[in-house]
Amino acid sequence: MQNNPHTTLVTAQAPIAAETHGGRAKCLQRLVRLDLPVPRTVALSFEAVKRIAKGELPDTTAIVSQFPKGTLLCVRPSSEDPDWGGPGAVLNIGMNDKRLATLSDRLGQDAAYAVNTRFVQSYAVDVARLDPDMFDDVDGEGREGLTESLRAYEGEMEEPFPEDPAEQLAAVLKSMARAWDGTSARLLRQAKGAPVDAGLGLVVQEMALGLGHGESGSGVLQLVSSDTGLPQITGRYLSQSQGRDALEGDAAALYLSRDPRGPSLEELAPEAFDALKTHAALMRVKLREEMQVEFAIENGALFILDGVRVARSSQAAVRIAVQLAEDKIISRAEALMRVQPRTLSELLHRQVDPGAERNVIGYGIAASPGAATGQIVFTATEAQASAARGEPCILVRRETSPEDIRGMHAAHAVLTERGGITSHAAVIGRGIGLPCVVGASNMRFIGSKKQLVTKDGKVFNAGEVITVDGTSGEVLAGAPKMREAALDESFQKLMEWSSDFCDIGIRANADTPADAQTARNFNAQGIGLCRTEHMFFEPGRLTVMREMIFAETSQDRRAVLERLLPMQQADFIQLFDIMKGQPVCIRLFDPPLHEFLPNDRAGQRELADALDLPLSDVTRRIDAMSEYNPMLGLRGVRLGVTVPEIYEMQARAIFEATIEVNAKGAAVVPEIMIPLVSAKREVELVKSSIDAVAAAVRTEKEAQFDYRLGVMVETPRAALRTAEIAPNCAFLSFGTNDLTQMAYGLSRDDAGRFMSDYVQQGVFPEDPFHVLDTDGVGELLKLGAERGRGAHEGITLSICGEHGGNPESIAFCRDAGFDYVSCSPFRVPVARLAAAQLAIGGNIS
Ligand code: PEP
Ligand code: MG
Question: How far is CA 161 from CA 89, 130, 143, in A?
Fold first, then answer.
């Protein structure tokens, strides 16, 4: 049989590979090579199992004859990747009248009958697929329990229970092979990334029963905590002689070593316990992984049944990978490859504890990761009041607008009824690291009554406590247990190592000094997008801004802008100071002006008071400015062309700030970016006006400075016409939020309402605002990049839409030769790790 590659005795030299026999078979072979006390094992290849599923069974008598006569066997699954699962193990195969007699002599009648009864019942349920309820009436123990179980089996099957071990084994193999082919098993493993044709291997192993007159039992042990990744002997051990139940977690650690409530494994079987620790340490080094050891003890003798990768939280995953590299067991590159970029984002924020009970009352799009608990408030003002009282709150809005920014800063999380992954709430939430769920359209938001109503009619009033889980997209009632963010030393090391490998720049989208500081803390290589409009939402500034909007003449407008100038200048000085000479890309004003005007009566009245105007003037002006499609209306460069004073003021503020910071010794070369361009002429007009401001400032201040002017490519026309736009600018930054919106003709604010239907029905493989559509939008990016580079060699290319932090999009940009990506500050670590992995050359799944 050794010569049959499909049914192979596991020896040190046997031809076994994870790709042909599965991870468990390969791991057992490694343990055999390490000379560990592994029970005899036969491995069945994927091919063998495929044939079994079709009805071509191997010679099970030959398999049974590989083991000493009278041995009981177990069969376990061995899929290529242990995470893909597999059918449950079947134990004690070979149990029949004859074995019952020998086992009774060895272990005593009670134990022998118990083993036999367990086997009959599990065979009936797991192999013959009978209903588990049929054993509900079996209440006898010992001989009686076995007889009743056999009777129940034979009654259902109308045939005697099989006595022949080879026959039993054949049925077990057949049922496990078929279970792997079942629809639910297939869907489950595909959800975990398994390919459609993923194979299953099986291992047939001699049972170590963990029963005997001396110390006997079975358990698992690992050397680190699954929670933290820190060294800690943990696991569980069930001692037959002590009749102790399995324990979990820290209590189990005590039970394995020193348990105050009774004898521990350390005391019961000190030699086995020592050997177990030594074997586990050896496995860590030789298998190059933190392993959980499955073991059995029979009369004091230790058997190693299996080793599996230690289950791990995100924090533990990082710590384990870093420690393996620090101990020189794996390389740094390998440590980087072992951490999923997305797991990092879990470390950066508080999360609902994975073990906490979740009372889900609604869900939406997981727009900004992390979780927070607080009292419901329905307006930004209430959020601020709540923060002033020191009470955590959740801001619940139909959707947010620039007016809500201060409320968002005051809240601990945001929940909106409308919106998608690039809606206002989502973008701001990610920018400031605020947990956020948007597009929760399965809940009703009744602002007038200050009520949130769930799908099944449950009412949550203002002041009631809820939790927003921006990682899962769920809204929970009450305050579940939380797990704190974990930016420990291992995380910092992983980040440092990532930077050593990254070959594409990673910048951050940062609008405020606080964002910029976060970006620096995460070692972003500059700011790739500063949305300047976000600087105007401070209450003091908002009023001045509104005055500017209401100015009747260009002269009046300039006068108000004079007052905004020093404020903007101070903003830029702060940003330049924090970024310490790293590039800062400042986008000129982008949104339609009426976003700054109040849309409710009370706000309009306040504005009329502040501007000393009749209310009717205010409302008339607001009505006149309203647009059917604001996102496609008077915004971005269109404002720059039609109301040039705003861009001129911003350019002046940037240049004056540059001079001031340069005078302190830093060498700042600001980058100025024009939004929403669609035509070359727009760039020419804005460029000449900004060049004129630069010349004026140089003369007035008698100072020199450089700056780089660039274009934001976010309309399809701009992407198609980069050949004529590029010669006029130093860089092109693709704004993939608007570009996706316009390429699809799909509103980024409304798409959330039906996106999940679209994804579920396979219309879109993913939400294109979340994962870059490399086919359509990607083609525009590629065309734009090629044509831009063709017309202006050496032009800097980047993306600054939300996709910039997404591993798949980073892969796309790197392949297309982009210089950098820019994403929310809190996504910088994820982007750095993803970029490092791409440079190392592995796959990101
Ligand atoms: C974009 O459109 O991709 C972008 C970054 O700009 P904003 O999200 O501010 O429209
Ligand atoms: Mg945009």
Answer: 20, 13, 16
| Structure tokens that stand for 788 in this block | 């831009």
DSSP 29-64: HHHHHTT--PPPEEEE-HHHHHHHHTT----HHHHH
Strands 73-79 and 731-734: unpaired
Within 10 angstroms of residue 637's Cβ, the number of other Cβ atoms is 25
Which residue, chain included where needed, has tokens 């071990």? Answer: 165
Cβ < 6 Å from ligand 1: which residues?
427, 529, 531, 590, 714, 735-738, 800-801
Q: Give the Cα separation of 440 and 755 in Å (integer).
A: 12
Using CA positions, which residue lies closest to atom 5 of ligand 1?
A: 801
Pocket perturbation via mutation, ligand 1, pick of 590, 635, 711, 738 by most ligand atoms within 8 A of CB: 738
Identify which of 365, 369, 364, 370 has the alpha carbon closest to the alpha carbon of residue 351.
370
Q: Which two tokens stand for residue 649?
A: 């003021």
The 10s digit of each residue's pLDDT in 305-341 is 999 999 998 889 999 999 999 999 999 999 999 999 8
- 355 burial class (0-12, 13-18, 19+ CB within 10 angstroms)? exposed
Residue 318 contacts residue 347 (beta carbons within 8 Å): yes
Give the total residue count for the chain.
Answer: 845
The number of the ligand nearest the C-alpha atom of 423 reads 1
What is the largest distance, in Å, between two alpha-carbon atoms of the chain?
A: 106
pLDDT at 247: 47
| Residue ID of nearest Cα to ligand 1 atom 6 | 735
Q: How far apart are CA 526 and CA 510, in angstroms?
A: 9
CA 274 from centre of chain? 39
Q: Give 329-334 contacts, CB < 8 A, sequence gap 24+.
A: 329/284, 329/285, 329/288, 330/288, 332/497, 332/500, 333/501, 333/840
Please count the other Cβ atoms lying within 10 Å of the Cβ belonging to residue 277. Answer: 17
CA dist., res. 290 & res. 226, Å (int): 10
Q: 223 in helix, strand or coil?
A: strand
State the Cα torsion 369-750-423-561 to the nearest 10°: -170
Residues β-bridged to residue 9 = 42
Tell me, letter by letter, the H, E, C secondary structure of 505-568: EEEEECCCHHHHHHHHHCCCCCEEEEEHHHHHCCHHHHHHHHHHHHCCCHHHHHHHHHHHHHHH
Give the catalytic positions in this structure. Answer: 424, 800
Exposure string for 548-561, b = 16+ CB within 10 A, e = fewer = bbbbeeeeebeebb
Which-ligand-closest: CA of 800?
1
Torsion angle of alpha carbons 811, 812, 815, 818, nearest 10°?
Answer: -100
Mean pLDDT, residues 457-470 taken together? 95
Quote the ligand 1 centre to 590 CA distance (angstroms).
9
Residue 302 near residue 275 (C-beta atoms within 8 A): yes
**Cα gap 693→652, rounded to integer Å:** 6
pTM (predicted TM-score): 0.81
Kindly report, residue by residue over 8-60, the tens digit of the pLDDT: 999 999 999 999 999 999 999 999 999 999 999 999 999 999 999 999 999 99
What atom of ligand 1 comes closest to residue 736's alpha carbon? 3
Structure tokens at 388: 């002033």
